[in-house]
Each structure stands twice: as structure tokens, then as C-alpha cells.
Amino acid sequence: MRAEPKAQEASVGAPPDSIEGQIEAWRAYLSKGGAVSSPDAEELEDHLREQIERLRSKGLSPDEAFLVAVKRIGAIDAITREYAREHSERLWKQLVLSGNGSNRSGSSASEESRSTWVALTLAFAAAAAMKAPALFGIEFSMDEAFYPLNATFLVFPFVAAYFAWERGLPRLRSIELAGALVAAALLVNAFPFSDAPGAQTRFLTVIHLPIALWLFVGVAYVGGGWSSSGRRMDFIRFTGELFIYFVLIALGGGVLIALVIGLFQAIGVEAEPFVESWLAPCGAAGAAVIASWLVEAKQSVIENIAPVLARIFAPLFTLMLLAFIATMAWTGQGIDVGREILIAFDLLLVVVFGLLLYSVSARDPLASPGLLDWIHLTLVVSALLLDALALWAIGARISDFGFTANRVAALGLNLVLLVNLARSALVYVGFLRGTVAFSQLWEWQTSYLQVFVIWAAIVAFAFPVLFRFS
Predict the structure, then answer these.
(1) Are the beta carbons of 107 and 58 closer than 8 angstroms?
(2) Alpha helices (H) along 332-404
(3) Of 17, 226, 375, 391, which has the fewest CB atoms closer than 10 Å, so is most exposed?
(4) pLDDT digits over 166-183, tens only?
């Protein structure tokens, strides 16, 4: 475990070449134009000073420690990365932005090597944890209820542990996170879920549990500074990048599995049992840790893919929603109130929310309104209209067939999305009219993440009790 942060007061008016002068320049850049609030800047400064102090204790000079510390802060803060880019004429840019250059310092290479080995160790530990239940007779290919419910507890702790080590999370906060995960695992495994046909609460817990518990990974990722909106936005970016890396690894893993099965079939050996019981589950668990490490280590190679994809697909989804609404108006056909259709609608609205979120994360908060902002506003308004129609359809289904866990969960999710989209539309209109800063939309989205987490936690932990585990 790394050292705990130690905040110091900045020396105002320090010589520009001194370390205090460099920190002052960095702090002034962060506060420029109000892109980062004063409390957030103070948190980042505390984190920067902590990194500098730790690096100096390892023998680095003040300048070297400042450069490496800015590089690390830049991994979790976009403004710091921009600061590095804008000061490209300075020598330290090579140290800050180049993760693989031949001119990097020995200490930086050593840190990266250590980070790699830590990630590999945790990946193997996650893979081993996935098979640990087999020691108690719970086989992956035989128990259809245990692994879907507990997969989160077998993977997330190792991803959180990597970031707790990487960020130097305070020991007390690490213990709190571990205790919360253990308590959550004991609670859901103590629930007497019904196995009767049509039982819904186990499935709802399975799909909402990862959303609720992803917050713990987020706290570790931001080094405990969850109150900082800038760090929460960086965690949003990380989540999108992690998803893309994981999908790429999964595609490669799929090819590997197909080759393994094909090769061993050629010599009369059935490899499917090994693939189903070992290769697939252990590989998926380890891949989650490796993908997290890749997002951190290879940002200079593939940076901000998720926001870029969001900016590409936002106009396409806008056209699709407009075409759908126009077709509904032309034909007079309402939304089918069938469960599958409503689930598809909810997935569509969640995707639209994700597109908006990552588009916001990729936008320069100080740039003037442009065409893409109008497209985003149209996307939000279109999604808002569809969400209202979906809510009407869900209400009709509840009126006809009564309350069930599935219907109440869908109703709650649509209400959560409705509030988010409505507020986003109002802020976007204000921004386009020049009366509201774009940072308010940033603040709104990062703050609202907690509403999604709370709702997911309610469905995962309270719904089984409220609906008597049916």
C-alpha cells in the first residue's frame, strides 16, 4: 500500500523554475475559465503533492518528481493532460506524454514494469478466484444460480485492488471498500430467492448488482476523491474505454477458443469441457483486470475511443430516433406494451444516455457552441419524448396486469432517465443561448451517476425483500 496523501499549502509568488512555481502554474491552468472548481483543484493539488513527495523519497530530483507526478495525475485528469500538451515546448513533455519513448527515465520504466506485474498478478488471482467455489463443490458448468449472482464479487475486488495500489488509496478507505463488498456478498447469498417459474427478483439482482458495485471500483480509481466531478468524469471515460478493451479481448478470446476446440477435435479429444469450466470463466475474469491495466498503461496509444465513438454515433442515433418518431406520427401506431419491446426501449434509452455522457466527456468545456451541440440537444429531446411514451406504456401495462418486480424496476429506470434527460435538455438550451456554462452539464451528468447507482442498489438489495424473493 502506498503512502497516504499529505496536503501542503502552495507558496504564492514562488520563482517559476522552483517546484512551488511549477505547481502554481499547473494550478492556475486548472482554474482557468472555471473548468475546475476550487475544491476539485485543491483535491488534485493534494494528490499531486502526495505523488511528488513519494517520488522524492525514492531519490528523484524535485523537477523529475514534478514531471512524473503530472504524468500520473494526467492519467486521471483531462485538464492536466491538456496542460501538458499546451506546454509542449518544455522538456518535460516527453516525460509526461510519452509512455514508451526511449528517452523515458529509468524510474518511470521501473514504475511501469512494477504496474505490469501487479496487474498480471491480480489477473491470475481473479482467474483463480473464479475457480475457488469448485473447492466447495460449486462447479461453473453445473450451478446456474451461483455464478451469475457472484461473478461481480469474484472480479471487481481485483480491479479495485489494482487501482487502490496504483492510486495509493488510504488503508482505512481500502478496508471500508473491502468490508462493503463482503457485506454485499453475504447479503445477496443469504436471500432465499424463489426458483419457481416466473420468479424475477434473482434476475433483477443479477443485472443491477454490477452497476451498484461498480461504484466501489470508481472510488478506488479516483483514489478516494469521489467528490471531485473531474475525477468522476475521468472514471466515466475509463469505464467506456474498459468496455471497448474488454470486448476486443473477448473477440480475440473467442477466436482462441474456436481454434482450441478445432485443433483438439482433430486428434479426437473433446476440449469443450475444459473451455466451459476453465478457459472461458477464468479468461474472462483475468481479462477484466488486464483490460483495466491496458486503459491505464496505453492511453497514449489508443486514447479516448469511447468519446470518439460517441461523437460518431450520436448523429446516427439522432436520425434514427427522429425517423422513428416521424413514423409513429405518420402511422398513428403506438408503442407495443409487450415486455420484450419495453426492455428494448429501455436499452435504447440507456445507450442514448451513454452517447450523451461520452460526448460531454469528449467536449472542450471552454469551446463555443457548435453544430454537434445542436445535434446532441436534438438527441436528448427525442429520447425524452420516447421515454415519456415508454412511461405511458409501462403505466398501461401496470394498470392492466398489476405491479410486479420487473414492471416496477422498468418504471423506476425510466423515471430516472426522464429526470436526467429533462435536466440535460434544459442545461443544453441554456448553453446554446449563452446563459449557462457547459461545465454545468458536466457537473449534472457526473453528479447524476450516483442516482443510477442508488437505484441499482435499491433494485439489487431491496426488491428481493419487497417482492418476497419471487
Answers:
(1) yes
(2) 339-362, 371-401
(3) 17
(4) 888 888 889 999 999 999
